Amino acid sequence: MNMFLETLIGGLLAGTMYSLVAIGFVLIYKASGVFNYAQGSLLLFGALTFVTLTDQGVPALGAIAVTIALLILTAIAIEKLLLRPLTNRSPMTLFMATLGLSYVVEGVAQGIMGSQVRALNLGIDDLPIFLGDIMISQFDLIAAGVALAIVVVLSLLFNRTRIGIQLRGVADDTRAALSLGIDINRIWQIVWAVAGLVGLVAGLLWGARQGVQFSLSLVVLKALPVLIIGGFTSIPGAIVGGLIVGAGESLAETYIGPYLGGGITPWFAYALALVFLFIRPAGLFGERQIERV
Amino acid sequence: MSEINLPAAAEPVDPVGLKAVGIAAAIAVLLAAPFLASEYWINAIIVPFLILSLAGLGLNLLTGYAGQLSLGAGAFMMVGAYATFSLQLRVPDLPLPLALVVAGLIAGAVGLLFGIPSTRIKGFYLIVSTLAAQFFFEWLFLKFPWFYNGNSSATIALSRGLSFFGLEANTPHGRYYLTLGIVALLTLLSFNLIRGQTGRNWMAIRDMDTAAAVIGVPVFRAKLQAFAVSSFILGIAGALWAFAYLGSASVQSFGLTRSYQILFIIIIGGLGTIRGAYFGAAFVSLLPLALDWLFQHVFGGHVDAGLLQNIQKAIFGLLIIWFLIKEPEGLARLLGLQRAQGARRRLFPS
Amino acid sequence: MTTSAGPALEVRNVSLSFKGVKAISDLSFQVERREICALIGPNGAGKSSLLNILNGVYIPDSGEIVFEGEHFRRMQPLEAARRGIGRGFQNNALFSGMSVLDNVIAGLSRKSRVTLVEEAFRLPRALSQEKAFRARALDVLKLFDLEKHAETVVGTLPYGVQKKVEIARAIVARPRLLLLDEPLAGMNAAEKQEIAAVIARLNRELDLTVVLIEHDIGIVLKLAHHVVVLDYGRKLADGPPETIRDNPDVIAAYLGAQHAEAVA
């Protein structure tokens, strides 16, 4: 039983990290209807920039400021050079364009800052904590706390601020929002920047744990099943989806893995997502699309 | 036969028969190529170019013609390669050509299986199913030694080499002609499908799938056919990649990067065109050479291989975006060989 | 299947809603065999949604469809096509990357009997079917005077021409019930007359039952044998054109609102 609980809790905590990555996708998908495949590369770009700056002796605060500024500039550039020319194109075209974007970001970031693995120390000890007999990673706990804080901040942002309300307007009914004079291009810039910042946080946490390297960008592949399960348009969906995938992977590896020779984590989340797709194609919290002909 | 010649869409009129001359010239060049090019070019550039073209063709049938996005091209290539290996190993009486066909059929069946979700989900959602294939087969073929016959390096290679109806094909020329023959045959068959009922069904689904179902296009069946045919071709391309080009292959030869590469080939070459796969593959094969040459001769220095790879990556990314924005029909249209009339068409209308 | 007497189509107590918003409420009406029935009503009245239910694109919340004596809780798109329900769409749902001829031949898909292998190797059966399909599609194009556009990529043609291609595609497989969503929209007066004449002729010569949505009241009253008026998903009136013209409810709800509408 303890082993089960430990596995479950470890999985749930890892799942909050998936949620954090998935939230970046949801923001962008809601505002611009794009499944942003480059989210993983932007996450890598943010973490890599921060590490490179601190390695050069820039103090952490300054490094964060520069990184954030770069992410905002990147968001503006993406909006102007990619989203705007592709307005009204199909979701699939947009998706493929972000796949291209991920290559650009990765190529440029690694071309300038190098491809080797970089250690990142956030000053968080990864010591285990014991709750009774159950061992929990302190780092995971803090990461989960950060993820939770971001969710709270984002919901405040979207429910209380003018920009947030405008964003929700754009997500609900783009045409109506346009006719009300909302500057959709600026909304896109803001959303991509916010998604970049959320990605930065995820990138730093993830990077602190496994080093800042190319494989960070592959978290995009983890986020996809999370979004399928939770629904592309829902932040609560991203959180629940992340927890389901995290817990599911962890339990499956422990209890099913041994029968299959182990190492099933890379595809298990996808198998789970496919099952969900057949039961609830729109995801747990997503909205069903109505076809118009 | 010519009176029933039915182009998939309007083709420019060609009163002088320029096309026939062009095709004859192309065939002559293709047949003579081994005597014109160095062994290095045949082994390292022309053969992989042909195989990548074939893979691009396979994916283009699914993605460019039937409108079903796939990030799992590598998985179906992998299935074809491992199936060929197993067949040659365990059914030694089966000649290589038949083994390739059976391996293609196995890959086609696997593709069909992973295509089933396409009947429930659309657009980029479908990448879940194809990525599932990608990760699953990477795991499967690495996890169980049966698939690579317990080889200590977990690689597969044909112990008897390549032979085609008694003809040895282990020389560069042999590999070239073997590859060329298979690629040409499959291109012809694909072309026939595209301009017939199957191709029409696929394009109808791509252009407007709801309307297609309403006017009586068997959407379910046509989508599965697209997955099966595409994977059949990808499977054979995978086998060629492993045994006619690499010699010995592993799971890494068909990783996610390979899937992206094949997708990029058809985006750059031209979605929904047969020749697009060739243009795209040529581009992908030649760009690294061109960049290398550029750095050697123009910037006059040796550039770190890692940096070169990153530059290449960024250039590919930029080109993908540029083509999607400006020219969804890719090089096939840019080079002016595409249909004369007709404004730019939008692939994947929403 | 076709021999049973009674109406061609019966809509019985059909309701449909999207995310809780009613699009069609408890709608019932009948369409007799070989009649042209016009659905009219302001935008948002649920007309297109109804056609989508008949084609199986939407699933009604309740009610049933009776087509040629057979009862359906819901239709499947392919099943509807197989049973002979043809359809033209409101905002041209043509296959924009294909030629006019290929678009029309696509309407024959369900009649195809050749296998993939036969096509790949161009075996005799595939070739003869292709030839037959092509001839049949060209015949239908002639009906609309479209042969000259046969090889043109359809997305490049003007809207009015595209509308004709749509009708051609809908009738090429000889449906018994033809559903048309604003077939005359975006055409000039002469073109409207021409298409209305073709619809009347198809109805007469092929015994084709037609249900169409149209905003041009002048044409509707001349062309239709039977008019059903919808407003906010409910049936407002149902009867021959003469009685509809004089119905005060209709005048208030629909004819008065007509000018405010954008005819796409």
TrEMBL record, chain A:
<comment type="similarity">
    <text>Belongs to the binding-protein-dependent transport system permease family. LivHM subfamily.</text>
</comment>
<dbReference type="Pfam" id="PF02653">
    <property type="entry name" value="BPD_transp_2"/>
</dbReference>
<dbReference type="GO" id="GO:0006865">
    <property type="term" value="P:amino acid transport"/>
</dbReference>
<keyword id="KW-0813">Transport</keyword>
<protein>
    <submittedName>
        <fullName>Branched-chain amino acid ABC transporter permease</fullName>
    </submittedName>
</protein>
<keyword id="KW-1133">Transmembrane helix</keyword>
<dbReference type="GO" id="GO:0022857">
    <property type="term" value="F:transmembrane transporter activity"/>
</dbReference>
<keyword id="KW-0029">Amino-acid transport</keyword>
<keyword id="KW-0812">Transmembrane</keyword>
<keyword id="KW-0472">Membrane</keyword>
<keyword id="KW-1003">Cell membrane</keyword>
<keyword id="KW-0614">Plasmid</keyword>
<dbReference type="GO" id="GO:0005886">
    <property type="term" value="C:plasma membrane"/>
</dbReference>
<dbReference type="InterPro" id="IPR052157">
    <property type="entry name" value="BCAA_transport_permease"/>
</dbReference>
<dbReference type="InterPro" id="IPR001851">
    <property type="entry name" value="ABC_transp_permease"/>
</dbReference>
TrEMBL record, chain B:
<keyword id="KW-0472">Membrane</keyword>
<keyword id="KW-1133">Transmembrane helix</keyword>
<feature type="transmembrane region" description="Helical">
    <location>
        <begin position="16"/>
        <end position="35"/>
    </location>
</feature>
<keyword id="KW-0614">Plasmid</keyword>
<dbReference type="InterPro" id="IPR001851">
    <property type="entry name" value="ABC_transp_permease"/>
</dbReference>
<dbReference type="Pfam" id="PF02653">
    <property type="entry name" value="BPD_transp_2"/>
</dbReference>
<feature type="transmembrane region" description="Helical">
    <location>
        <begin position="176"/>
        <end position="194"/>
    </location>
</feature>
<feature type="transmembrane region" description="Helical">
    <location>
        <begin position="95"/>
        <end position="116"/>
    </location>
</feature>
<dbReference type="GO" id="GO:0005886">
    <property type="term" value="C:plasma membrane"/>
</dbReference>
<dbReference type="InterPro" id="IPR043428">
    <property type="entry name" value="LivM-like"/>
</dbReference>
<dbReference type="GO" id="GO:0015658">
    <property type="term" value="F:branched-chain amino acid transmembrane transporter activity"/>
</dbReference>
<feature type="transmembrane region" description="Helical">
    <location>
        <begin position="41"/>
        <end position="62"/>
    </location>
</feature>
<keyword id="KW-1003">Cell membrane</keyword>
<feature type="transmembrane region" description="Helical">
    <location>
        <begin position="226"/>
        <end position="248"/>
    </location>
</feature>
<protein>
    <submittedName>
        <fullName>Branched-chain amino acid ABC transporter permease</fullName>
    </submittedName>
</protein>
<feature type="transmembrane region" description="Helical">
    <location>
        <begin position="260"/>
        <end position="287"/>
    </location>
</feature>
<feature type="transmembrane region" description="Helical">
    <location>
        <begin position="123"/>
        <end position="142"/>
    </location>
</feature>
<keyword id="KW-0812">Transmembrane</keyword>
